[in-house]
Amino acid sequence: MSTILKWAGNKTAIMSELKKHLPAGPRLVEPFAGSCAVMMATDYPHYLVADINPDLINLYRDIATDASAFIERAKHLFKIFNSEDGYYDSRDSFNNDKEPEWRAPLFLFLNRHCYRGLCRYNKKGEFNVPYGNYKKPYFPESEIRAFAEKAIRATFICASYNETLGLLVPGDVVYCDPPYDETFNDYHTEGFTECDQYRLASILERRSSEGYQVVVSNSSTLLTRSLYRDFKHHKITAPRNMGVKGGAGKSAPEIIAVSKPSRNV
Q1: Residues 176, 247: one domain?
Q2: How far apart are CA 234 and CA 18, in angstroms?
Q3: Smaller CB count within 10 Å for the chain: N or C?
Q4: For residue 36, pLDDT beyond 90
Q5: Coil, helix or strand for 9?
Q6: Based on the domain organization, do 205 and 85 belong to the same domain?
Q7: Confidence (pLDDT) at 72
Q8: 125 φψ region: left (φ > 0), alpha (ψ -120 to 50), beta (else)
Q9: Which helix (H) or strand (E) holds 234?
Q10: Are 10 and 217 in contact (CB under 8 A)?
Q11: Residue pLDDT, tens place only, 181-239
C-alpha cells in the first residue's frame, strides 16, 4: 500500500527492513508523522501520530472524520485545476483564504501537483513549492479509504517532538523519523537544526533509560552515529530521490538505531 502523500523520506521502500526492528506493544508513538507509511504498514492496536505541521495533521484528521466527503472535495480540485494556472490559483487560495472546509483537500492537491511532492514553507508560513508539470497526477482514493479504516485506531495531534514524547505511557513503543541530519531538514517554517538533533537524542536516551523501547531512523553521519552511540545500529542503504550529493546515485546510507531499554516501565 502506497501512501496518500508524496513525501521526502517516505519509509515505504524500507518498511520490510524497518519492521524487523519495531518491537510489539499496545501503542506506537510517532512524533514525526510524515506520510504515515509506518502506521499503514504495521499492526499495532493503537497509534499516537504527531507532527509539528498543522496542515499535515489537519489532513489526517479530516480524512479520519469523513473520508467520503474529503474525497468528493479533493476530486473536484483534481478535475478542474489540473493546469499550471490552476495550481498557482489553488496555492494562493491555500495561503490566503484559509477556508477550513477546503484546506485539507487543497493540501493534498498541492502535494500531488507540486514539484516532486515537496512540502516547504517560506518564513511567512506560506506554501511555496513550484508547479510540478505532471500530465495526470494520481488521485489516491484507495489509499485514502484504507487510511480512514486504519485511523480508527489512531489519535492525531499537532505537537512538537518534545511535547509528544512527554505523553508516553507504560508499554508505548516509540518510532522517530526526524528530518535527517545534513538533508531533509528545512520543510517547515521552523526548520530542524543540529540543536534539535541533539535535543531529540537526549530525550530519547532518557526515555530509553526509563524502559521505553525506542527506534530511530536517520542519515548515517558522524553526528548521528555519535548521538545514538548507546543504541544498536543497523546500517541500510535506502532509495533517495532528494538530498543525495551529485554522483552519489539515488541511494544513501542510513541507520536504524534501536535502544536497549531497562525493565523500569
Answers
A1: yes
A2: 10
A3: N
A4: yes
A5: coil
A6: no
A7: 98
A8: left
A9: strand 232-239
A10: no
A11: 987 555 555 678 999 999 999 999 999 999 999 999 999 999 999 999 999 999 999 87
Q: Is residue 90 part of a domain?
A: yes
Query: At 158, which amino acid appears?
Result: C
Q: Would you state the cell numbers that stand for residue 164, as one nine-digit string?
A: 509528544
Q: 141: which 3 cell numbers?
A: 482514493
- Torsions phi, psi for 33 (to 5 deg): -60, -45
User: Domain total for the chain?
Assistant: 2
> 27 or 261, which is more confident?
27
Q: At what angle do helices 84-96 and 100-113 cross, to 10 degrees?
A: 140
Q: What are the pLDDT digits (tens) for 127-163?
A: 999 999 998 899 999 999 999 999 999 999 999 999 9
In whole angstroms, give the CA distance from residue 188 to residue 125: 8
Which three cell numbers, joined as nine digits, stand for 102? 477546503
Residues near 7 by beta carbon (within 8 Å), at least 6 away in sequence: 34, 35, 37, 117, 119
Is residue 74 within 8 A of residue 108, CB to CB? The reply is yes
Cell numbers for 243: 538530498
32 within 8 A of 177, measured Cβ to Cβ: yes
Distance, CA of 56 to CA of 4 (rounded, Å): 11
Per-residue pLDDT band for 248 (boundaries 50, 70, 90) equals very low
- pLDDT value of residue 243: 46
Q: Is residue 61 classed exposed, middle or buried when 0-12, 13-18 and 19+ CB atoms within 10 A define those classes?
A: middle
For residue 85, the enclosing domain spans 63-142
How many other CB atoms are found less than 10 A from the CB of residue 142? 11
163 lies in the same domain as 250: yes
